[in-house]
Design brief:
Blueprint (H helix, E strand, L loop, with lengths): L6 H14 L14 E4 L9 E7 L10 E7 L4 E7 L3 E4 L2
Antiparallel strand pairs: 1-2, 2-3, 3-4, 4-5
Length: about 90
């Protein structure tokens, strides 16, 4: 696996973004599938890191998690995904 970022670097980018925009949830680092590397992803040029953030559902939102997509090539966050299909492009 040839990457620009390490798993820890991708985690740091995701955590910084989450904190900067005061997003809820926890990134459970100890779970293997929480931070994963992929060679390609829709709408992103090159490989990416997917970072899953666990959240507590409430009456207005039944989701249990959202995903931060970090571009390995650009070394920054590209997309924020919510399971219901909502996509926020970071630019």
């Amino acid at each position: 696996m040839n990457t620009h970022l390490t798993r820890d670097s991708a985690l740091s980018i995701a955590e910084n973004y989450k904190n900067k925009y005061n997003l809820s949830g926890n990134i459970l680092e100890e779970i293997e599938h929480t931070i994963t590397f992929h060679d390609e992803f829709d709408s992103v040029n090159g490989p990416i890191w997917l970072v899953t953030v666990s959240i507590k559902p409430h009456e207005l939102c039944v989701e249990k998690e959202y995903t931060i997509v970090v571009s390995d090539k650009e070394e920054l966050l590209n997309i924020l995904l919510i399971r219901m299909g909502v996509v926020f492009t970071h630019i």
